[in-house]
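ESCALATION

Customer reports they have been waiting on this structure for their group meeting. Please prioritize. Original submission:
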Amino acid sequence: MDRKLRNPLNLHVQLMLFFVEDTQQFLRSVTGNAGATSTHKHKFLLVLLAKREQKASETYEKMSQIFRYMLHQRLNIDVLVLLAHLELATIKSYTFFPFGNECESFKPVILPLQQALLTQLYPHKLHNLHGCPLQVIVWEVPPYIEIQPQLKDVQGWDAQLLKMLARKLNFRVELMANEPPDLVGGATYMNGSFTGAYEMLRQRRGNLTLGCAACLPARAKYFSNTVSYNTVEYIIVLPEGKAYSYYEIMLFPFNESTWLLLIVLSFICFIFRLFDAPRFRHLPSPVRLGCIMWLFVLRISYEGSIFRFVHNAPGRPLPQSLEQALQQDYDFIMDPSTFRMAASVNGLNECSRAIPGLPVDMFDQLLQLPQGSRTGLLTSRDFLSYHLDRHHEQRHRFVILEQKVLNNILCMHLPLGSYLARSISNLLFGLQSFGICQQLVKTPSWASAVATTSTSKPPRGCDALRPAHDNPFAESMRFLHAAFNCLLFAEFVLILGIFLLELLSLHPQFRWLSWFFHRL
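Update from on-call: job pushed to the front of the queue and completed.
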């Protein structure tokens, strides 16, 4: 074999070599060889020793059985059989082309051996599948996969990529529904247990599955993955911060220490007036002028702070990162598939819960929670953009946590050792290198119109997406109405308190209250 191959390839070929006389002997050898498993995609070289009295049809049948076993059990099509007649001192090479005029053809095809190149002995067999069907397991996960009624067709970003691969490789897509159909993907565990589409792949009931499926270590252990064709950012989405009431705005401009200082000064003035001390009746003019100026500055600062606050219309402060959200006792909701994927994020499992439904349905679930609840949603920007594209009126009701949580790398999954993995990976790499994969998902990103927790307003250019404010006159009238209500409440408390104290001063034990009112 080494002398038959041209230089410089003759010394750089690694093959799984078997010397057998019949099919059963080959099957026993492969089963007992730890290196000849579906995890090792070596090229196989079989030397089949033929007998002179053996008919050619019997020999061809043996080779067909070997090819059938390699395709169905080992998922390997790089097989070369050297048919050696020791008595005749002849040797011929055979292989098979599973996709041709008929699908899954195991007919031995003779190859020229003299001065053959490696690519001639192991030719590429998957450049054209001649319209043969491939079973693709899909599930509903917009905007990646949207299944048409009765599984007639699929739409979405990943569906476009699948159709492009079908045109490139010339295969026919046979759609298979996930089991159960409402399950998004499925679970894969390191102990070898599976659910959903991955259990179907493990049972080899399908050739391929895709639909926002992450490349996870457990899946790489039990399945063949293609190269990554997309990266998805997962973020925390919070409901819009609750706005301050007008009564809170009137108390907002000053912090607690300023209000405490005002209360103490008011109490001191009240005490001075109550006891009517002579030395405090006539203060020096500079001191009185300083007090008046201080009250003027305080009033201007108060009014300016309220004006700025009302003009900016901020909401209540929201956490800036996942760590701050956890410290503020936020909990998080997500769909079951995202819940399984986020299991590796530290600190997120203890305060997360899965809600049945699709990822794009979680936004309505978030809005249905009571206002002011400390609850966020773990989702991706793609799901948020898809939801906002269909619900424009909700674009101002969400706020994105500034810091992303994780990146989700998407890839396609095939049965372990599948012969299709390398061909599909090569195509995906070419499509991604030329930017075609990125172009398929290039849609208007409505998620960029959503404000983040580090900004009080949406990004520039998105002001038109905010809800229209009322006219300034109505806004001012509502604020004056709140101020008038506060004044009425203060007058009511004052009048009621004075009336009760005067009534109480008529009692013999509280005669000192009469002196108190006299001093006032």
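Sent to customer with the following note: Confidence is low (pLDDT under 50) at residues 458-470.
Escalation resolved.
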